[in-house]
Amino acid sequence: MSARQTCRIGISVTLLAASALVTVPLGPVPFTLQTMVLALLPIALGTRVAVRSVALYLLLGAVGLPVFSGLAGGVAHLVGPTGGFLWGFLVGTALGGLISRASASTRLGDALGALTMLLTSYAAGTAQLALVLGVSAPAAATLAVLPFIGPDVLKLAVGVSVGQAVRRALGQVPEGGL
Question: What is the pTM of this model?
Fold first, then answer.
């Protein structure tokens, strides 16, 4: 890994942690700006750097650093009710980044990649929330997805636009693959 990639990963992890600080509690799942950052990372920096950044973010949170929403940390957050959303961030970033790159990083492809990331996070989060709380998947989705759809679509639009602006500013097409 190059020094440039290492720096980009560090900045990305910092952005993810900072975006988790903007927290509005809405039931068991808080509103944060993380989906906006997750939408822009693969577009701006490439799938490989984005996935490594999210993985490092989750690792730092798992070992107890207060990088999750509400300045929380610890493995309990990854296995608790909202942990599926965090795992979904990782899988969704990988899938979304691959879709964006497969579409030659067009605006539509980048938007589809970001939407894939969000839907993956929703699916993983809903499944884990239902399991941990002992409720049905539709009940979990009503509780933890439905209130977020509108704001998340707006955050994705901003994230895609910012990601594309950063990619243009860097003057390069980010590396693809995992």
Answer: 0.92
